[in-house]
Automatic annotation (TrEMBL):
GO CC annotation: anaphase-promoting complex
Protein name per Swiss-Prot or TrEMBL: Anaphase-promoting complex subunit 8-like isoform X2
Coiled coil: none
Domain Cdc23: 11-79
Signal peptide: none
Length: 79
């Protein structure tokens, strides 16, 4: 699922990093917007990548990597 001009996997990775960065800064509307965009990439498979290295371990402890998109979206709506 890769285009010549747009790497979907890299975009999803950057969205997730943006979510975590904005959460740390308390930017709730930005987190909500990024989480909705990231949830749109839910069908993008990130298997084979160590997602735990890219995020705050304490925040995502006990959550399966395939559930990160749902978690981020739900948490942004809750916040």
């Amino acid at each position: 699922m890769e285009d010549d001009f747009f790497n979907v996997l890299e975009a999803k990775r950057e969205l997730r990093q943006g979510i975590v960065g904005c959460q740390k800064r308390g930017l709730v509307y930005s987190v909500k917007w990024l989480a909705e965009m990231c949830h749109g990439f839910a069908d993008v498979d990130t298997d084979g990548e160590d997602e735990k290295d890219n995020f705050d371990i304490k925040m995502l402890e006990g959550i399966a990597p395939k559930e990160y998109d749902n978690y981020f979206l739900a948490k942004s709506y809750f916040d």
